[in-house]
Each structure stands twice: as structure tokens, then as C-alpha cells.
Amino acid sequence: MVTLMNLNEYLEYFKNMQNKEFRWTSTNTEDGNLQMGYPIYDQTILTFIREFKTSDDFDKQYKKTLKAQKIRIKMNQKIVDQVLAIDTIDILKAMLTLIVTSEEVDEGSWARALQEGFLYQVTRALLAKQNEG
Fold it and tell me: Which InterPro entries match (predicted)?
């Protein structure tokens, strides 16, 4: 069964989340130092992540897809710009998958992807590409 995401549903949210501050959990350690925890995400991003991971837009081979185009497995504006320059559906889906899976190894990466506009830029480009076809 083909399960494609309705990415349009999230585009305005991604746009509005640019430059927004996230609240983080924090705890006081025994020596009185404040230790930052993890960002507190709203239901919209959590729903997007869950839906994307189970959709056919999720690229299980995203590392291979990106490396085939000599794109480093990293999330920053330079990499996003490379992905946007190549501008194929496969590369855009692979980049979205990289962003969606990044939180597992880099706490706070979803917050950064929202704040810096990576999710917005890649999603907007993917929607434009899909609408061409």
C-alpha cells in the first residue's frame, strides 16, 4: 500500500517555526549546576515525524541516496543548499529522512531544522517537484 504524506499540511507550520525559540527541559545537578535536557516539541512536529517515518516518502537508504550525489550526511545550510541545487524528488526525500532521523543521534536537531528553515526549504522544494509531475 502506498502511503504518501500530505506535506502541504505542514508547510505553513514549518514556515512559521523559523526563528522560533524552543523551551528545553533542564535539571539541577547535585553541585547546583543547571544541566540542559532536550527541547520540548509540540504535537505538530511529533505527528509529522511519526507520519513521515511510516510513509513511502521515507527513504530507508537515505545515506546511500545522498552519498551517491556526494552529499555529506550532515544537516546544515550548505548541505541543504546542495540538495536544493540538485532538486530531484529522491534527493529531497533523502534529505527529509536525514532530518527526521537526526534527533536520534543529535538531540535538538529537529528544533534546529525548524528554526533554521531546513524543514521548510526542503518540504517546499519537494512539493514543487511533485506538483511538476
Answer: DUF6508 (IPR045425)
- Which three three-digit cell numbers place residue 51? 507520519
Residues 13 and 39: their CA atoms lie apart, in Å, by: 17
pLDDT tens, position by position, 10-54? 999 999 999 998 888 876 666 666 666 788 899 999 999 999 999
Residues in the chain: 133
Q: Which of 108, 69, 72 is nearest to 89 (CA)?
A: 69
Domain ranges of the chain: 7-132
**To which H or E segment does residue 38 belong?**
strand 34-39
> Distance of CA 76 to CAs 31, 33, 67, 98, 121, Å?
35, 30, 16, 11, 12
Q: Tell me the pLDDT tens digit for each residue of 49-73.
A: 999 999 999 999 999 999 999 999 9
Residue 79 CB neighbour total at 10 angstroms: 17
